[in-house]
Structure formats: C-alpha cells, structure tokens
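Work Package 3 committed the consortium to producing structural models of liganded targets before the mid-term review. Because experimental data for this complex are still outstanding, the team generated a predictive model from sequence and the ligand definition alone, so that downstream docking and mutagenesis planning could proceed in parallel. The input record is reproduced below exactly as it was submitted to the modelling pipeline, together with the SMILES string for flavin-adenine dinucleotide.
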Amino acid sequence: MTVGLSDEQEDLRRTVRQIMEGRVRAHAAEIDAAGEFPQFVRELFAEHHVFATVAPPEFGGLDGSLLTLAVVCEEITRVCANSGMILGNQSLGIGPIVLFGTDEQKAAYLPKLASGEWLCSFALSEPEAGSDAASVQTRARRDGDCWVLSGRKNFITQANVADVMTVFARTDSRDGGVLTAFLLAREEADWIVERVEHKMGLRGSPTCAVVLNDVRVPESALLGELGAGLHIALTTLDKGRIMTAALALGIAQGALELAVAYARERAQFGRSIADFQAIQFMLADMETEIVAARALVWTAAARYDQGDREIIKLSAATKLFATEMVNRVTSTALQVLGGYGYIVDYGAERRVRDARVFAIFEGTNEIQRLVIARELLRARG
Ligand SMILES: Cc1cc2nc3c(=O)[nH]c(=O)nc-3n(C[C@H](O)[C@H](O)[C@H](O)COP(=O)(O)OP(=O)(O)OC[C@H]3O[C@@H](n4cnc5c(N)ncnc54)[C@H](O)[C@@H]3O)c2cc1C
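The resulting structure, written out as tokens with the ligand in place, is given here.
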C-alpha cells in the first residue's frame, strides 16, 4: 500500500508549519521553562481551525481523517511538543464521543470541541489502575434518575483546563455494567484537580490528579452502553496510538533538523564536524529511522481511515516503533551537539525529556508488545 498526501493535506501541512514557525517556535523553550499550559497556543489553534482536524465534517470538523490529523500532529511537535499535546489530547478526549456518542451528545459536544471553544480530557488511569485498565475502582452508582461518581483519576492530561471529560467508572453488575463511560461537562459536574504533577518533560502539558467526590450527573451522561466502558476505552486507544506515534515522529524530525544545523555550524580540528563520518552516520541513521516511522504512521492512519479490521496490531506496532525511535533519535541528536546538547539553551535536552514519556503513555511499550503478540498468536492459518 502506498500512501501519499492529497493537495489539501499538503496545503494544510504548509499552513500549520507557517503557524508553528512564525508564532510558536520562539516560545517553545519558554513554554517548557514556565511549566504551564500555553493558553496562547490553544487560542492560535482555535483561530486557525486546527482543532477541526479531530472531528468529523458534519459536526464542524475538517475531513475526519486520521492521516490528516497525523500530518498536522507531526508539524506541531516538530517545533513544540507541548503544543502537540493540546491537539493530541483533544483527539483522545473527543474519540469516545465520535465513536460511541448518541446523536444528541455529538450535536451538543462535537462542534464546540472542533472549534476549540471547549477542551476535553480522557480519564481512564487511576492510582491503582494503569496498565491494568480493567481494574478501575472509581464507582458510579444510580440514584433516582442520576448517576453519582466517586473515586480518583491519575495522570489526566489537561483536566485542569478541560470543559468536558470522559470518565471510566465501575458500575454495579446488577445494572448490567462493569466498566462504563460517562461524559462529564464542567458546567454541570464538579471534578476536583487535587494536584498538577511536576514532570521530567512535556512540562507545558498539565498532568492532573483528579478527585470525583460524589459527582452527580444525569442519565444522559452515559456514553455508550452500560458495561461497554473497556471496549470504548480500548477502541479509542487504537486510534490514539497512531496519533501518539505521529506526535513522536514530529519530535524526532525536529531533533534531526537541530542536529543537522548544528553539525554544519560546529568546527573542530579545523573542520566542520559534519565532515566526520561518525557524525554523518549518526545523521543518516536518524533520517532512516524517521523515514521508516513516517511510512508506518501514514500507512496505519490511512488503513484506519479505510476501516481496516486489523488495526489493533498495526496501531500497537506503529506506537511501539515510533516511540522507541523518538527516544533513540533525540538522544543521538543530543550527542551530535556534544556538551551543548546538555545545555538547556540549545533545545536538544528538551526534546530528550519530552520524548521519554511516549514509551509510557497510551499504554506502555511492554503492553504494546503484549497486544502485538496476542494478535499474532490468535490469528489462524
Ligand atoms: C504525562 C502523562 C500523561 C498521561 N495522560 C493520561 C490521560 O490523559 N488519561 C489517562 O487515562 N492516563 C494518562 N496517563 C497514564 C498512562 O496511560 C499510564 O501511566 C500508563 O498506562 C502506565 O500505567 P502506570 O503508570 O500505572 O504503570 P504500571 O501499569 O504500574 O506499569 C509499571 C511497569 O510495569 C510494566 N507492566 C505492567 N503490566 C505489565 C504486564 N502485564 N506485562 C509486562 N509489563 C507490565 C509496565 O510496562 C511498566 O514498565 C498519562 C501518563 C503520563 C506519564
């Protein structure tokens, strides 16, 4: 399968590159240093309809294509990983509504999320439920015609700035449930952000510990069927993992460009370090890995867009390869810069720090290997 971009996708790629180069690049280091959510980037994305890439066209979205979203994600993180997390998290948070929402829920939420008027979060992880997502302890109990949610959610990206949050909670089996998804709107459901974590990287992307203290929501907050929560979460992540791989790809591309520019400038032993074959081989290996990851991301995204049923394995493999690649490539880029790579002002160490978590979130890479092996061994003939 060969995948190319349409003229519209190429145009969008150029537009996003211009926005990122012209309006964000000069602030990428400040965003990391400040460790706060970059509100101006959110406004910029809303102004230029970047959020439209996460929603279907009938609800204010662009073309609803994961390939389009992947191309845009790469362009954003090439310059600023924290900015990429804003769009990536919007895509993850909107996923359950796009895939499982009722017509009323879609009409109420999607246009505001597609325009960037609202932000959303995806709340699955808990202090005791990480890789083992099925062991979620947050409870939802019926009370009259309402549901009451209580529990703790951990590591929830942007919960402190979100207007909407999908919460996965345990419902009583006598209600026909086990894990069920609920759609919480900030204006009617009060979740408490107990703490914003202090992190190694992605410091401008808030990671929140959330408390749900008898949060009462109407019946209409139920998202999908009772007991379908795990299926909703995992199906959303099948798409999310390809998008995460695209974010990782952009960080790697940005690191490579930094290393190439530095290698051209830096002289030692009376020659440009770019003349040393050791440096050339590092750059060549980085480029090769990036090209391979891009081919994988585009193929997986295009297959997702075509409704490929084999996507679980391909999605996990794409996430695994691209997120391990970005750790190798950012580390090699830092090496090309020598001691300056270790100095904050040069931007290489930020990319190493930002890249690290990609092998952990959206399912650790150990879990991706388990998924790939399970799918391989299940297949017959
Ligand atoms: C910055 C950041 C943002 C995040 N954003 C969100 C978010 O928005 N929403 C959300 O719901 N979650 C979010 N997460 C949570 C993330 O998805 C989890 O951290 C991840 O799933 C791993 O869970 P854990 O941290 O509890 O690790 P654990 O599951 O405790 O894993 C610890 C180690 O054991 C390994 N391990 C676990 N089980 C197995 C197994 N069966 N076989 C082999 N190895 C295993 C893991 O791979 C890992 O190396 C975020 C996390 C971070 C760090």
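Reviewers should note the following from the model. The chain has a mean pLDDT of 96. These observations will guide the Year 2 experiments.
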